[in-house]
Write a structure and sequence with these properties.
Blueprint lengths: L5 E4 L5 E5 L4 E8 L5 E3 L7 H5 L2 H7 L1
Antiparallel strand pairs: 1-2, 2-3, 3-4
């Protein structure tokens, strides 16, 4: 992960990644029943994505 992100994980494969920008949950991954990692969080994976997000785009139009 990029510098400044906070990531916590356990031995079973669950991990959470936080953006320091407003303590935003950027990613929550876990292995599905087939062992593939799945991301539960819908949204932005970077601070750039969040700061230029949908709300900002709506006001610019």
């Amino acid at each position: 992960m990029a510098s400044g992100f906070i990531e916590i994980a356990n031995k079973q494969g669950l991990s959470a990644t936080l953006l320091p920008f407003g303590a935003t949950l950027a990613k929550l991954t876990f292995p599905d029943k087939e062992g593939k990692n799945q991301d539960l969080v819908l949204g932005f994976d970077t601070i750039d994505g969040k700061s230029g997000g949908l709300e900002t785009q709506i006001w610019k139009n």
